[in-house]
Amino acid sequence: xxxxxxxxxxxxxxxxxxxxxxxxxxxxxxxxxxxxxxxxxxxxxxxxxxxxxxxxxxxxxxxxxxxxxxxxxxxxxxxxxxxxxxxxxxxxxxxxxxxxxxxxxxxxxxxxxxxxxxxxxxxxxxxxxxxxxxxxxxxx
Length: 140
Prior knowledge:
- This protein is an alpha/beta fold.
- It has one domain (24-139): D-Maltodextrin-Binding Protein, domain 2 (3-Layer(aba) Sandwich), CATH 3.40.190.10.
- Helix content is 44%, strand content 17%.
- It has 5 helices and 5 strands; from the N terminus they run H-E-H-E-H-H-E-H-E-E.
- The protein has helices at residues 2-20, 39-46, 69-79, 83-96, 108-117, and strands spanning 25-29, 60-64, 103-105, 121-126, 135-139.
- The radius of gyration is 17 Å and the shape is globular.
């Protein structure tokens, strides 16, 4: 009986963990943005190593709330860091006056709204949230 209970508990825990994970991240821009953007370009924009898209237009990154599933996936898959490393990176830039982190919003809907209104913005959402108001430039 203990074994059955333990197995059920493990299955339940795995189901909960799987339901909170984001399957795929879509990096989005305004549909008017003509640039082709690589994963490396995206990482440079989000790390403040560049402030422009490859075509030269200003790039304004939109970030998500620290600890959110979509942000954890983005930071891991696109920036190749974990959240602690990214926080440390931004702390150094802020302390030295060399950078300001991206604006943070709470939801896919807010990211899509900001990106659809401004051709200079770039954001990331759960791929399932994408609609015609934005253009997907990469899925990770």
